[in-house]
Amino acid sequence: MIVQLLVAFLGSVGFALMLKIKGRQVLYAGLGGLITWGIYLLCFEWLASNFEANLIASIFVAVYAEVMARVNRAPATIFLTAAAVPLIPGGRLYYTMYGLVSEDKAMFYENGTAAITIALAISLGFVVVTVLNRYWNSMTAKWKKTT
To answer: Is the dihedral of CA 65, 71, 77, 79 positive or negative?
Structure first.
């Protein structure tokens, strides 16, 4: 588990550097990737559901990105993109394509379905946080006008 967390950190840092993120924001992006992967591992252990584990981890990474954006006065997208890298179903996508090329329908369907499920969980987590954040900002703005 320690190795997985370290690799998640390094993968997020590498992706942050590739995106030309600078300074301490690279460290924050790496830390977000490490914590996100840790949350995924814990949720997968408790829930034994790939969809739910990815959903919870993606909700965390979206909230983390919004908080880091405010702390660093930077766009949330840079933290969201780099810190969500460990959740991307790269292996599943690879085996989906391998199953397609080798005409192994069982491998293609199993891995393709899993990759789509993971992608939907990640996107749903991002959308939930975005909608709640916009609602919160709207309600806060209305509250400030009335006082």
So the answer is: negative
**What are the pLDDT digits (tens) for 101-138?**
999 999 999 999 999 999 999 999 999 999 999 999 88
**Spatial distance between the Cα atoms of 20 and 41, rounded to a whole number of angstroms:** 28
Closest to 122 measured CA to CA, from 40, 16, 9, 2: 40
Two structure tokens written together for 7: 């690799």
pLDDT in tens, 87-104: 999 999 999 999 999 999
Q: DSSP for 2-56? A: HHHHHHHHHHHHHHHHHTT--THHHHHHHHHHHHHHHHHHHHHHHH--HHHHHHH
**∠ CA 103-107-112 to the nearest 5 degrees?**
105
Collapse the DSSP code of 92 into the 3-class scheme (helix H, G, I; strand E, B; otherwise coil) and give the result: helix
pLDDT at 34 over 80: yes
pTM: 0.90
Ordered DSSP codes for 118-139 = HHHHHHHHHHHHHHHHHHHHHH
Contact indicator for 105, 113 with CB cutoff of 8 Å: no
